[in-house]
Design goal:
Blueprint (H helix, E strand, L loop, with lengths): L1 H28 L2 E4 L5 E4 L5 H28 L5 H28 L27 H23 L6 H24 L4 H4 L8 H19 L20 H18 L11 H27 L4 H16 L7 H25 L8 H14 L3
Antiparallel strand pairs: 1-2
Helix pairs in contact: 1-2, 2-3, 2-4, 2-8, 3-4, 3-5, 4-5, 4-7, 5-7, 7-12, 8-10, 9-10, 9-11, 10-11, 10-12, 11-12
């Protein structure tokens, strides 16, 4: 039995070493060279070396896997009878989003600016990708990385509207956010011609572009739908509607935590030497968020709450998304701690004072902590 385990470990280590060597080799092969006037041969980057391609694609795959995390979190935090509906919404978010973002959204987000920094209007269907040129395929990798971000923004809304949303209406919303809402906001900030980019707005990996946008859309959806039946008593007191599977939600949070190592470090868009720093700040903020949220709800209610601790992880991750490349590890811990406290207070305020029914805490995690994370850039 032990020998079989040893063989499996050796096989996995060997596979990891093979992949690592391939990345290094491809990175070397992908760089073209030129000879300077002094006779020195130097490498040039024609639009992304092979190592850049691989890193961006691996990061995109990790962010894509976050769709499973969101599905598990939302399913675990809600009642069993709604599981199929929730899973279908998450599936269609990405499926529909991929199509409309390819044909329309990408051109609005990264096309040449046509309306004074408000939106782009070119390169629809990624026509700028030219396999005949050096680095021509890199544009496809860039599109894939962005479409999984667009799907993340769309999926955030699903949690706040869970258990009471008409499926057809949700599909219409999914088209709108992936076609217009996310691409327009992204153009403002991540297109160099966008009006916020021109004013030096910094959002490294999307605390605002992805999470805050999704969070505020979730807030509007929750307000328009109203609360679930039985959520509030006749005199307005909130009643807890327990989710059916907390272990499933915990699994979803761990999947999201893993995916964030593609989300933030991948936003370098190349195999840069600071990806390790970004991964460390990302991890520390998540850990700080979990601890702070647990202690905060424990202090307020007199007992620990696993669901709040899980949302604390996500709060820390959302908050560090904008400043992850620009803050020290110690600052990342502080950002995570503040986000953990903030998410608990926000969840309680939205539920008890505003009386808005948000089954998974999406508005607090993504909207509130997204704004805080953007401000934390400094």
């Amino acid at each position: 039995m032990k020998s079989k385990k040893i063989k499996k470990i050796v096989l996995l280590v060997g596979l990891a070493l093979f992949v690592l060597s391939a990345v290094v080799a491809f990175g070397q092969e992908g760089s073209e060279t030129v000879t300077t006037e002094e006779g020195e041969t130097v490498a040039v980057d024609p639009g992304g070396t092979s190592a850049d391609f691989i890193w961006l694609l691996v990061a995109a795959f990790l962010v894509f896997f976050m769709q499973a995390g969101f599905a598990m979190v939302e399913t675990g935090f809600t009642r069993a009878k709604n599981s199929t509906n929730i899973l279908m919404k998450n599936l269609l978010d990405f499926s529909i989003g991929s199509l409309v973002f390819f044909f329309i959204g990408w051109g609005i987000m990264y096309g040449k600016d046509a309306f004074g920094g408000l939106l782009g209007f070119s390169d629809f269907a990624v026509t700028s990708a030219d396999p005949g040129k050096a680095g021509g395929y890199y544009q496809y990798a860039s599109w894939l990385f962005q479409v999984v971000f667009a799907a993340t923004a769309a999926t955030i809304v699903s949690g706040a509207m869970a258990e009471r949303t008409n499926f057809k209406a949700y599909l219409i919303y999914s088209v709108v956010i992936s076609t217009l809402i996310y691409p327009v906001t992204g153009h403002w900030i991540w297109n160099s011609e966008g009006w916020l980019a021109q004013n030096h707005f910094i959002d490294f990996a999307g605390s605002t572009v992805v999470h805050s946008v999704g969070g505020w859309a979730a807030l509007m959806g929750a307000i328009m739908l109203g609360p679930r039946i039985g959520k509030y008593t006749a005199d307005g007191r909130p009643k807890a509607i327990a989710g059916h599977n907390l272990p499933l939600a915990a699994l979803g949070v761990f999947i999201l935590w893993l995916g964030w190592f593609g989300f933030n470090p991948g936003s370098t868009l190349k195999f840069a030497n600071n990806i390790g720093h970004i991964a460390v700040t990302t991890n520390l903020a998540a850990a700080g968020g979990a601890v702070a949220a647990l202690l905060t709800i424990w202090f307020i209610s007199g007992k620990p709450d696993a669901s709040m601790a899980l949302n604390g992880v996500l709060a820390g991750l959302v908050a560090i998304t904008a400043p992850s490349a620009d803050v020290s590890p110690v600052s990342a811990v502080l950002i995570g701690l503040i986000a953990g406290v903030l998410v608990v207070l926000s969840v309680l305020f939205i539920d008890k004072v505003l009386k808005i029914d948000d089954p998974v805490g999406a508005v607090s995690v993504h909207g509130v902590c997204g704004v805080f994370g953007t401000l934390a850039v400094g």
